[in-house]
Structure formats: structure tokens, C-alpha cells
Amino acid sequence: MNWRSPRTLGVAAALLFVGSPLCLAADPSPVAYPVGAATFQANCAVCHGAKGAGQSSLAPPLTSYPVRYASIREGRRQLAMTVLYGMFGDVVVEQKHYDFKMSEFPQLDDDTLATVLNFVIFDLGHAGQDTQPLNATEIAAERSQPLDGTAVHTHRAAVLAALGL
Ligand code: HEC
What spacing in Å lies between the alpha carbon of 86 and ligand 1's midpoint? Predict the structure, then answer.
């Protein structure tokens, strides 16, 4: 690891921030994916809320569906597609409708997208030990097959059907 690279310093800064006593005082439960947590607060919390609870009719909660998606291959692909290409079109999560545009995040690298999704799955969704963390290779596989937000929305319907949701 090159300790002088900007990326390493950025990761170190994120770790320091998340692990600081002030931060721990505000939230006593330690997170399994601190870099993912920092990425989430910087990029996702504005719509989904700091704890992923969502916002009425604007952005869905991330505390129950993503953890289920992580249990099947097409669902894992769905998670990677959603952050890489965004999503557009009405979605229903726990009987509530959300119809807004999810931003795309191609500027975040594969490791960063995997870790932010792992924060969602494990820290927000409390996935059990039988769930495999997402890895950068799974993100890279979707990055090599570009889609638009409408296609991501269509794929989501197939994932929900496969999971019986
Ligand atoms: C501009 C607001 C906005 C931002 C920023 C945003 N999202 Fe979203 N997100 C949405 C909306 C809206 C949807 C539902 C899209 C739709 O209605 O088609 C969504 C959907 C999702 C879903 C799919 C949920 C499901 O049930 O299928 C995941 C996972 C997700 N977002 C994760 C993230 C992550 C991780 C980030 C940060 C890297 C992020 N979002 C940033 C608005 C946002």
C-alpha cells in the first residue's frame, strides 16, 4: 500500500472520521464497513437518510430489500447495477410507492461501490453470516455491461419475482 497516495490518505481520513470519539458518542454501535459508512453519508444519505430509512415518496428505505437481493445472484447484480447506472420508474417497497430518479455513481471505483453496498446490506440491513459480502469483481462485471436507469428498473421487477416479493 502506498501511504502517500491521495486515495490511501482519503481512506485513512474516512477511517479517522468514522472512528473518532465524537462520532462514536453520537452513534454507539460500531459499523462493520466504516469506509462504506463514510461513502454512504457523503453520497446517499441526502436521499435515503443517514440510517437508510428513506423519505416519503422520494427515496425508498434500504433496510429490508437490499439484504434480500444479496441472497441471490440476480439480486447481487441488481445492487451493482443500481449504484452504477441509477434507476428510474415507480418502485414499491413494503407497499409504499417511490417514483423519483436514483442518481448513478460511475465515478466511484469498484471497491468503493462494493463497500458502500456492504454497509447497506450488513450495517443497515443486518444480513446474517450466511450472506457473502459483495466484492469489487461483481461490480466490475456490471460496469462492463452499460445499462440505463429504465433497464435497471425492469431488471428489478425480475429480481422481486424471483424472491417472491
Ligand atoms: C437523488 C437521490 C438519491 C441518491 C443520492 C441515492 N439514491 Fe438510491 N434511490 C433513490 C431512488 C429515488 C430510488 C428508487 C428509484 C426508482 O424509483 O426507480 C433509489 C433506489 C436505491 C436502491 C434500490 C432499492 C430497491 O428496493 O430496489 C438502492 C440499493 C439504492 N438506491 C442505494 C443507494 C446508494 C448506495 C446510494 C449512494 C451511493 C444512493 N442510493 C444514492 C434515490 C437516491
Answer: 7
